[in-house]
Amino acid sequence: MNLRAAVRDHTLGTATALSAVALALVFAAALRVVPADALPRAPAAVVDAIPHVNAAVSVVAFVLIVLGVRAIHEGNVEGHRKRMGSAFGLFAVFLVGYLYRVALIGPTEFPRTGLIETVYFAILGIHITLAVVCVPLLFYTLLLAWSHPVSEIPSTNHRKVGKVAAPLWATSFALGVVVYLMVYVLG
Hints:
One of its GO terms (biological process) is respiratory electron transport chain. With 187 residues, the chain is mainly α. It has one domain. It has helices at 3-9, 11-30, 44-73, 77-105, 115-147, 158-186. Helix 5 packs antiparallel against helix 6. The mean pLDDT is 95.
């Protein structure tokens, strides 16, 4: 049995396992389980640039998700596949940069207090919650698309789960940009 067939036969289990690993890495970085000294240290300019690069990555990923949804509504399966796959690739780039920076220096603190801080933490909380919820939904929908021929995808849960995953994913990216703007522009 090849890998694609194995994933097709065990899509939910594979998505669950990948989600558990991905979320464990996120929480390990956020909780600084791995000592920063154990990681290779990039130059300070690279570490400092990560939030700015991730904001740009988030904007492009948001646009790709919107265009991917539009493509499938127009019946453009190949355009949908390319855009959503590219958005997932950007999500991986974002996540690697974010995890690396957080593991090295910890989460960025919000520099303001009062009502703006309350608004910031509310937006950040929603962003983080959506990001965590999206991980298993994304793995599941992408694995369904990857492991099935296009002709079989309508008989899977891809469309049903994708209708939930895409707007949550886009909203998470958009809120991530708002968080960035609040920290680096308003802060």
